């Protein structure tokens, strides 16, 4: 259903279908990876913040060519570990993910979306 919604919004607003990116936090961060795995040729870039799920290296092979940025809070618990392991596993299959540790933060790192020092939106659209 989410893909249908994205398709509808993109078509209704005249979006460039070759430049659709995805981002999410926590459960949404895992949803980002899940969507990439399900539709590996659909998204042009992705940012997963504090993903709450771990993926095997073999699963990640299919998305190795998609630009991916993973964020986690410096004081994050296991979801920070998941972000680091996903990044490591992506690297092992030939991807070059960006891994960003947000200093002095725990799980609540949603401000990364609008913090100019990260330039996340510009990165997602390739500027």
Fold topology:
Layout: H1 2-12, E1 21-25, H2 27-38, E2 45-49, H3 57-60, E3 68-73, H4 78-92, E4 98-102, H5 120-124
Parallel strand pairs: 1-2, 2-3, 3-4
Question: How does this model look, in words?
Answer:
This protein has a four-stranded parallel β-sheet. The longest helix is centred in the C-terminal third of the chain and has 15 residues, at 78-92. It has helices spanning 2-12, 27-38, 57-60, 78-92, 120-124, and strands spanning 21-25, 45-49, 68-73, 98-102. Helix content is 37%, strand content 17%. The mean pLDDT is 94. Helix 4 (78-92) links the parallel strand 3 and strand 4 (98-102). The protein is built from five helices and four strands, in the order αβαβαβαβα. It is α/β, with parallel strands linked by helices and 127 residues long.
Q: Give the N-to-C terminal Cα separation.
A: 29 Å
Pattern of helices and strands: HEHEHEHEH
What oligomeric assembly is this protein in? Answer: single chain
Q: How large, in whole angstroms, is the Cα Rg?
A: 14 Å
Number of distinct helices: 5
The computed structural class is alpha/beta
Sum this structure up briefly.
The protein is about 35% helix and about 15% strand.
List the defining traits of the structure above.
127 residues; 4-stranded parallel sheet; alpha/beta; 37% helix
């Amino acid at each position: 259903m989410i893909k249908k919604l994205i398709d509808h919004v993109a078509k209704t607003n005249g979006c460039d279908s070759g430049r659709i990116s995805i981002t999410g936090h926590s459960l949404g961060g895992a949803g980002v990876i899940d969507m990439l795995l399900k539709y590996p040729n659909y998204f042009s870039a992705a940012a997963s913040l504090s993903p709450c799920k771990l993926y095997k290296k073999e699963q990640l092979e299919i998305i190795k060519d998609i630009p991916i940025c993973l964020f986690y809070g410096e004081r994050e618990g296991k979801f920070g570990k998941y972000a680091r392991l996903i990044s490591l596993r992506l690297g092992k299959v030939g991807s070059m993910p960006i891994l960003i540790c947000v200093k002095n933060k725990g799980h609540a790192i949603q401000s990364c979306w609008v913090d100019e020092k990260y330039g996340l939106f510009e990165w997602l659209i390739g500027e």
